[in-house]
Design a protein that fits this description.
alpha+beta, 4 helices, 133 residues
Length: 133
């Protein structure tokens, strides 16, 4: 019974985190500012391609950050530090984490997989050592 409860809790946590990563109807977060991705982001992108066994188009991503040292809100979800959005091929980061490799690679993994959920195969098993989860 304890295993079933922990599996349910884990699944619920994944749903909550997935809801925070992307929604096809969300616009850019309030205050988001476009920026050119530093060269290290492309290096991290290739690391994510390697661990996931998938490829994506780094050049197709538009990059944004939300100024300040805190999190940002998307829809009704507060405390967001990273957001991948499929509809506009963008990744938005809180300024407080834009140099955090694990967070950036987490959002890059969403972009490479082209999905907003967190399949354990990729976010835990294959790439868990280099992405936040």
């Amino acid at each position: 019974m304890a295993r079933a409860v922990s599996t349910i809790a884990f699944s619920a946590a994944l749903v909550l985190v997935a809801a925070r990563c992307s929604s096809p109807t969300d616009s850019l977060p309030s205050g988001a500012v476009a920026f050119s991705a530093p060269a290290i982001y492309e290096t991290w992108w290739h690391e994510v391609e390697q661990c996931s066994g998938k490829t994506g188009d780094f050049a197709a991503i538009s990059w944004y950050y939300v100024p300040g040292q805190g999190d940002f809100t998307v829809g009704s979800n507060p405390d967001i530090v990273g957001l991948w959005q499929a509809f506009n091929h963008s990744i938005t980061l809180s300024q407080s984490v834009w140099e955090n490799a694990d967070v950036v690679r987490h959002e890059e993994l969403h972009a490479i997989l082209q999905r907003g959920d967190h399949p354990p195969e990729y976010f835990v098993q294959k790439c868990g050592s280099i992405v936040t989860h």
